[in-house]
Amino acid sequence: MERTSTKRLPIFEAAVAVFSEKGFAKATMEEIARRAGIAKGTLYYNYRSKKELFLSLIEEGIERLEAAVKREIARRRDTSSKLEALIGAQLSFFEEYRDYCKLLLSEVWGLGSRWEKQLERLRSGYIGIIKDLLQRGQAEGIIRQDLEVNTAAMGVFGAVAVAALNAFLFERQYHYESLLQTLKNLLFLGLNEREG
Amino acid sequence: MERTSTKRLPIFEAAVAVFSEKGFAKATMEEIARRAGIAKGTLYYNYRSKKELFLSLIEEGIERLEAAVKREIARRRDTSSKLEALIGAQLSFFEEYRDYCKLLLSEVWGLGSRWEKQLERLRSGYIGIIKDLLQRGQAEGIIRQDLEVNTAAMGVFGAVAVAALNAFLFERQYHYESLLQTLKNLLFLGLNEREG
Amino acid sequence: MERTSTKRLPIFEAAVAVFSEKGFAKATMEEIARRAGIAKGTLYYNYRSKKELFLSLIEEGIERLEAAVKREIARRRDTSSKLEALIGAQLSFFEEYRDYCKLLLSEVWGLGSRWEKQLERLRSGYIGIIKDLLQRGQAEGIIRQDLEVNTAAMGVFGAVAVAALNAFLFERQYHYESLLQTLKNLLFLGLNEREG
Amino acid sequence: MERTSTKRLPIFEAAVAVFSEKGFAKATMEEIARRAGIAKGTLYYNYRSKKELFLSLIEEGIERLEAAVKREIARRRDTSSKLEALIGAQLSFFEEYRDYCKLLLSEVWGLGSRWEKQLERLRSGYIGIIKDLLQRGQAEGIIRQDLEVNTAAMGVFGAVAVAALNAFLFERQYHYESLLQTLKNLLFLGLNEREG
DNA sequence: GATGAATGAGTCTTCATTCAT
DNA sequence: GATGAATGAAGACTCATTCAT
User: Fold this and answer.
1) Which of A127, B63, D6, D158 is buried most, with the most CB atoms less than 10 Å from its CB?
2) The CATH number, out of the four listed (1.10.357.10, 1.10.10.10, 1.25.40.10, 3.40.50.2300), of the domain defined by the range D59-189
3) Over chain B, what HEC string results?
4) What is the per-residue pLDDT for C113?
């Protein structure tokens, strides 16, 4: 039940910025309001509480990630290309929304029990897409049969997420193409050099 | 300069439990003291502040992880076995200290700028070990040359960490062997079924 | 200067309901507006402030009580019947407007200094009627001379009010006739069994 | 489970003063602390919340009233004297603790549903004492049989309470003896002049 | 060494009131 | 006349930290 739409966008952006800089607990409604250029009361006019504001951010972000990835996948025919596109889409999403993604990993991923609903949303949403592709790939014989898909899906997500955040947040400079290529090589071909 | 008190072990355990359940900001010194069976003042007698207590936990944890992994690595001769052992050691460490590892990912990893020193410690410490092994492997020709080692090291760490936490924290039951095998297969051999 | 709006009646009823459920301080203009089926701004179009709305309620209520009692009194000839009628009228008013009367006792009576004007209104209004009747009765020799009229008038009001509210608000079921009879017996004849 | 006793007395007195001046909702913890000469945090160290502080006040007050009245009653032999003593004791309690009694009537009596437990405490406690005496009196034939005891007990309480508060809080000067005598005459003998 | 009562700065949240439409 | 989005002052409550015993 969205209220005014005029105010919600600036609030959204300010909130993502503050939450990702300070973390959920250290972020203050005061600062979010100030950065959004509105009064504190207006924040509460639009969102019932700090928690609701936070959760709506997470929800919205997960939806955007899903949408972005689905769009890219839909463009490819074969499962292999789809998986490749998925990795590319996740990486590019993490690059564009690095602040939001930091939030995603630190608050939602790290904690868990307190945000069960949102976690489940992520798992059945984005992780579910990876899992489906892996299963289809196994059926088609192009993905190794000896992979348990849940674990493998989490592994793929984790590898991209951690490598991406490390590069985008903590490296002064990074080479996007090299990052993407290394992740694809690692995940599709593995660490091992193929012998002869 | 550690104080010599015999109180530090129970404090350590209580602190890990509370911090990982509540997160840094929501954890209270009151509760840590209560769970450790001591008075709040005693906490401050042993640690200057909440932050110092927290950081000493993280420090200690990273050291344990490094030590555990190094021990396993030292037992193997060839680089390949060492890498395999490293993944096993990380997984087993995450299983044993799941609470601590949740902390590690949510507070230290997710945030960053605020704990730079600790992050750097993790990166140059544990991630550094992975990186060194990968480099040695490339020199020996058993690791793919087309992998940028920093990215690959982060990818390996992230894949294991995320898959492990998901299994240990959120799955009612998990099959440790299958988890380990899938991660090894994924990381060493890649997703692709080898043709021919 | 009452505004002419047709909105004032629904507002009145909603306001009495909300104020008596929550008390003055916990009642919100928001809820009063919602229950009256109007917008918050409209409330302020009709009443300058929360306090004014509240006071106009109290004023109105005291006037209704006075009017009801005066009407009943006017019907009787002798002072004794008038006093009897007064008690009956107060009891029946408290039964019909129990919410309003709860308000009256809790906010106006209990506090005092803050609403001096309204209190004075009540005292010189309704209590004044009782006092006048008692004085007339004393002059006529049908009311005990050893009663100080101010105190007695307050005592009569208090006995009826407290017994009435207790019955109407907190007893699941009550017997109106028995209530009335007991109050009349208590107040006119006293507790003591007459000897001889 | 009382905490420190050193701090609780000044808090008690400051709280009664502030609550009775402002009412529950308008009273602030800040002001109570200031008047008690302690920091706000200390208030919360001794009482979990504003509500708990308030309720403990009410509880304590009801107990004191009960104790005072029981003490006086115990000194008399016959039921009639006991009832007389009860009225005297209530009046003198209301004179001494006028602030507290204002609180009692405005917050607890007036509201009700929100403080059910405390109300019940009062009803079964103090009102119960009156009721018991009336019943015993009826059995002994010295109290009118045509009085329903619940109603009569409430009436007695209400008459004394309302007359007392009016005198002690709002009259510049009052004559205690006259007040007491009028109430006793009113309640024991009734309004009616005895004919013949 | 150990304790826990006391502190007060810092936050979330509520709500009467205003005003542009 | 009517609306409801926006405001900001005010207040309950938390908790890291201190210090006298």
Assistant:
1) D158
2) 1.10.357.10
3) CCCCCCCHHHHHHHHHHHHHHHHHHHCCHHHHHHHHCCCHHHHHHHCCCHHHHHHHHHHHHHHHHHHHHHHHHHCCCCHHHHHHHHHHHHHHHHHHCHHHHHHHHHHHHCCCHHHHHHHHHHHHHHHHHHHHHHHHHHHHCCECCCCCHHHHHHHHHHHHHHHHHHHHHHCCCCCHHHHHHHHHHHHHHCCECCCC
4) 58
Per-residue pLDDT of C23-81, as tens digits, reads: 888 899 999 999 999 999 999 999 999 999 998 888 888 888 999 999 999 999 999 99
CA distance A5 to chain B (A): 30
Q: Rg of chain A's alpha carbons, rounded to an integer?
A: 19
The pLDDT tens digits of the residues spanning B41-92 come to 999 999 999 999 998 888 888 888 999 999 999 999 999 999 999 999 999 9
Contacts of C141 in chain D (CB under 8 A): 193
Asked if D40 CB < 7 A from strand E, the reply is yes
What are the domain boundaries of chain D?
1-47, 59-189
Q: Residue B112 pLDDT > 60, yes or no?
A: no
Between CA C15 and C1' F6 the distance (Å) reads 24
Query: Quick check: C147 and D175 in contact, CB under 8 A?
Result: no
Q: Enter the CATH code of domain C58-189.
A: 1.10.357.10
Of D83, D141, D162, the CB nearest to C155: D162
| Helix/strand/coil for D95 | helix
Q: Which of A50, A186, A195 to mutate to test the interface with B (most CBs of B within 10 A)?
A: A186
Was domain D1-47 assigned CATH 1.20.1250.20?
no
